[in-house]
Design a protein that fits this description.
flat, single chain
Length: 105
Amino acid sequence: MQVATDTDNAYNTYMGDHRRRIRATDAAKNFGKLIDEVRESGAGWIVERGGVPVAQVSPLTRAWTVREFAEWAGNRRGDAAFERAVEAGRAAANRPAAPKDPWES
């Protein structure tokens, strides 16, 4: 598979993006190999068309079922740090979308 230039990869790694890049044409020609590599290595790829990132191929993380989450959360009861984090998350999620109008009385 033909990947983006070493200069591109070095810059992206410097900027904190450790996913490798591949041209869209090369990804299409070698799609089976690309999927196998993602599955085996767990590494993601950025697909570029004309040097512009247009897609990402990365491992799929399995979503939890409600039952799995409930069991996990139930086992965390009594953990003060966990409960504080949940309350902070709940408070942040329940904040009004728009700030109150300071001119209203």
